[in-house]
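Record 1 of the preview.
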Amino acid sequence: MKVLVINTGSSSLKYQLITMEDESILAKGLCDRIGIDGSFLKHSNGKEEFVTDIPMRNHKVAIGKVLEALTDSKTGVIKDMSEIDAVGHRVVHGGETFSKSVLIDDDVMKAINDCIELAPLHNPPNIIGIEACKQYMETTPMVAVFDTAFHQTMPKKSYMYAIPYEAYEKHGIRKYGFHGTSHKYVSSKAAEFLGKPIEELKIITCHLGNGSSLCAINKGQAVDTSMGFTPLDGLPMGTRSGNIDPAIVTFLMNKEKMDAKEVDSYLNKKSGMLGVSGVSSDFRDLDEAASAGDERAKLALDLFAYKVTKFIGEYAAAMNGVDVILFTAGVGENNIALRKEICSNITYLGAEIDENLNNKRGGVFEFSTSESRVKVLVVATNEELAIARETKMVLS
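->
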């Protein structure tokens, strides 16, 4: 079985073609700057990488170019599109409608459209990607895999906000959480690595990257997560503020004469690591600047580590204990110093790390000591493989 995984952004499209018998990647690539001058396709067939400047005025054209690359005699890995057995689509928001991945039909498309107001920046390009694929592959089954689905097991006390209940009933204002596909994948991978049933474990997953979130997972089910109604909530991130006093919004509107759109941009695109440091939203740049003596870059890193530490403590309390703490995503998998800093402040939970074991990047490994009461791991995430697995599961 061959599954094509599609992950569409507003001006980009990432893809992988995976054969499910051994879960190997046959091809992968990126269409970037869709609808913008200078659009290009980066495609790898496992042997060579090809970068081609191609005008792509919309996502339908981009999907067509992906399929051409997959079937081309030089760059391709399949003879024709009939070899693609299914397409798995990442969909950011499924609201309260979807608690698992589903086969896409007209009712599902309507429900995804209904969630646009909850994810106006994310769901529209996801929908465009689905519709473009359907035009080229009318009879190929397609599956929607939702970022929010894994978090639908949260109890009501976790996802409700203390605002008038009518806001939830009328507008669906509640915590939804995101990165669910990643949190589910790495928690299962951790249980597998430790040789223990996930139903016996209390796990805190730390998905740390340009976008970051933590999740408390008890017996394989999400019980709380740091992102909320939108991905803006929770930890400070590359350019997002994370949780703040909500009165700051109206204060800024009054003091800086901002309207709602300007405040939204301020908190989503100008805050976080970029806003605090004034240097960059990239943690690698911050490490370099901090090492060179930049105090604001160091402050941004310290602030981030402190906030992660606080959420770990909160989720250990929420689950009345923790057995496993794991780090994943770009920063979690690769920033050795940040992992050390975070772990140095959770020794009260019984977590002790071996600095030599921590001196690695990526993959799956434990870096807690043999005396540590909590297992501390790095687990490389693989959302594309997770989507492919979900697709296969739905179809079987």
